[in-house]
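Quick start: read one record
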Amino acid sequence: MKKFLLLTPLALLFFIFTAFKSDDGLQIVIRKGKVTINKSQVVPNWSLSGFKKVLGEPERERTGYNNTHTYDKNSIVLFEPAKEKVGGGIVSEFQIHFKVTEANDVTPTGDGFQGNLSVDNLIITEVLTAEGMLSKLKKWKKTDSYMEHSYRMASKGLYIYFQFNDDENRLLKVSIGPDKSSK
């Protein structure tokens, strides 16, 4: 009887803790050329269905040169190349927005990425600076970027664009895709 009386409060505490546990958001890990989201590997095959299996259906989709699949809640956009607006089922790039600076038909409308993103052993957050990123990703090759305050890093078949604010002391978004220049 004493064991029952002891276990009942413990079971009740466990139930309360698990019932009210908050959702910590997505867990995205980039390591050794692979991308996993919530422990499901979505890269190297880059299939749209693989991303949707993990992320669910997007809140918005737009057809065009690239079909875009926007996840407002998670602040993620998938880009799917299209021929005559018909997608091929492969994601060419995905973006994670920490802060939306320019609202349009593609960018997420949410409050920014709330999950966890790590690249090798570097935890990526909105407060990451360009200097901090460059000092931690020394094994990644810095290559030419197409715009100011943006750094293109490449390693093991992947590229990541890190786009910072004008002072380069806050991260706005990252864009991740297959590094075709390494082949």
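The chain is about 20% helix and 35% strand.
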